[in-house]
Amino acid sequence: MSKKNTSYQVIKQKLFSKIADHIYQDFISSKQDHEIIPSENQLASHYQVSRTTIRRALAELVESEKIYSVHGSGRYIRSNKRRQHSLNFVYSFHELAKKEKSIPFTKVLDFRIQAANTFHAKKLNIELDALVYFTKRIRYLNNFVHSIEIGYMPVSLFPELSIEILSHSKYEYITQQKNRKIKSHDLELIPAHPTPEIADILNIPLNTPLIITTTTSYFDTGEIFEYTEAFKNPVDHQFLIHIEK
Q1: pLDDT mean across residues, the chain
Q2: For residue 90, how many other CB atoms are within 10 A of its CB?
Q3: Class of domain 3-77
């Protein structure tokens, strides 16, 4: 590459970076996490540059983790403090909301009673064909989809469980209304790609990798009272493992 071409590339790169800085200051720095930013056409018109220049500037912002793209939807402001999880302690959803001063909301998508198959019986340590609750919930923090949770619980332990209870804190119901003591949880982290339904709810492309956390929960008596699978929104979660030598 000639010296002239090299100089031209440097100038263009500086332009992309300058536009990226302007976009950050004008549309990102003072806004809320996960807000959508203007489209490429709107930004090109605002700064009086080509869409190609805007596209390159946005790519820099994606690379520096200031924004993220959702296919067919647009570009959104990425949280500057991604949620980090310790594998040695489990917060309930409402404990997490309180810790982060966020507003929690739960939408129950499915709630029904069914006979336990081999999978349920093994996970809950119950008899085959025993009655279990099947639940599916979307958990929101500040109107952002935090996770999707699929759960199984023995009906015999919670005969009065309802959508109303599941729309609030399930653990508060267990510990305060049922007066049961939760002792521990076994967690497993599974890398996966979302199903079309999960991708649609999380508003992410189908090929986006995510983490499924499976949790088996125990009473102080050693009895298993719940098995859940939680699909964590990859935009907002990060798992760190620290190992001492």
Answers
A1: 85
A2: 17
A3: mainly alpha
Q: How far apart are CA 188 and CA 84, in angstroms?
A: 16
Burial 139-162 (b: 16+ CB within 10 A, else e): bbbeebbbbbbbbbbbeebbeebe
Q: pTM, whole model, 2 decimals?
A: 0.68
Q: Tell me the two tokens of residue 145.
A: 């989809």
Quick: pLDDT tens for 102-142: 788 999 999 999 999 999 999 999 999 999 999 999 999 88
- Spell out the CATH class of 83-239: alpha beta
Using the 8-state DSSP alphabet, how is residue 24 labeled? I
The contacts of residue 135 (CB under 8 Å, 6+ apart) are 108, 110, 111, 149, 150, 151, 152, 153, 166
Ranges of beta strands (E only) in 48-158 are 67-70, 74-77, 83-85, 104-115, 131-141, 144-154
Confidence at residue 94, expressed as pLDDT on a 0 to 100 scale? 76
Round the CA-based radius of gyration of the chain to a whole number and report it: 23
Close Cβ partners of 48 (under 8 Å, ≥ 6 residues apart): none
> Domain limits of the chain?
3-77, 83-239
Cβ atoms of residues 38 and 46 within 8 Å = yes
Please give the backbone phi and psi of residue 158, each rounded to the nearest 5 degrees, phi first. Answer: -135, 65
